[in-house]
Structure prediction request, 89 residues.
Amino acid sequence: MREIVGRVGERESRQAPVVVLGSASATLLGVVRGFGRRGIPVLVISGSPSSAGALRSRYIKRCYFIRTWSSQELAAVLEEIGPEAGENP
Prediction:
């Protein structure tokens, strides 16, 4: 089961987004901040909706949560993200 959480006040950007995968951590947020400061929208794929509070950053455009890190479920989320990512993700 996938849960999609959008961020309030999403900024529109013509830049193709980057997808960041990982658990909610200071390292993940540092990566998000690095891309965000350069104007690159960030989509996050994480494992647990319970960690949503730890994934707060003004640079996160949207979070996708997956319960298992199976290749099939990850591929399904990436296919779901595809249209949003644009022509050259």
Q: What stands out?
A: The domain at 2-85 is CATH 3.40.50 (Rossmann fold). The chain is about 30% helix and 25% strand. The chain has a mean pLDDT of 80.
